[in-house]
Automatic annotation (TrEMBL):
It comes from the Bacteria. This is Thioesterase. Belongs to the thioesterase family. InterPro entries: AB_hydrolase_fold (IPR029058), TEII (IPR012223), TesA-like (IPR020802), Thioesterase (IPR001031). The lineage of its organism: Bacteria, Bacillati, Actinomycetota, Actinomycetes, Kitasatosporales. Residues 26-247 form the Thioesterase TesA-like domain. One of its GO terms (molecular function) is hydrolase activity. The keyword Hydrolase applies. One of its GO terms (biological process) is lipid biosynthetic process. SUPFAM superfamilies: alpha/beta-Hydrolases. The keyword Transferase does not apply. Keywords: Hydrolase. It comes from Streptomyces reniochalinae.
Amino acid sequence: MTLTNIETELWLRRFHPAPDASTRLVCFPHAGGSASFYFPVSKTLSPDVDVLAVQYPGRQDRRNEPAVESIGELADLIAPMLRPLTDRPVAFFGHSMGAVIAFEVAQRLERDGVTPFLLFASGRRAPSAVRSESVHRESDDTLIAELQRLSGTDARMLGDEEVLRMILPSLRSDYKAIETYRCTPGARVSCPIDVLIGDSDPHASLDEAGAWSEHTTGPCDVEVFDGGHFYLNDHAVAVTDRVARRISALRAP
């Protein structure tokens, strides 16, 4: 499959070019999130790390495209975009739904002989830790209430009816994708997994987060922060520092 620059730029956003960086970090947004969520991470890590953020269909400048309602299909679409960018060591960072997509993309790259050297799984229970959830079937009001409960969306957006009309379709599709996701039994990657989680996250208990160790043949480390599902908004400096330290420690010379 030959990809055009336009196709790649549609899916992958590079906010701060770092052509001399020795490593890359690919960031995967949460449900309802967009690539711009990782603009601060890119700004902080550049130029030492070449940071790219995935832009899913159905949001921001891709809002006229249909959102993808399957984690597996999203991973199938994203993996080919990343293969040409594995000419240097690559790490993944995914928050919430993004952690699961990162895990699935990593499996696909490994099958092609390319292994990310590190996977950061943030704010998400292990792929095998299944809960029965069906928010995607609920009313718009219930979806908005869920956003408010998780405290990950700017309160000004929640009060703007026009903005809500724009984000709710992609949010509902994302929730359908993650709530209907079931990983392949025994699915693993070979890279280390760093799990980052808030101690009061309603979507992931500490035991469920620790179960990520079952999904790698390498080491798995869990760091717990004060806070809920979007703990990283309150601990941005600490999270980014950890990412930088771990990348520096594990990247190839």
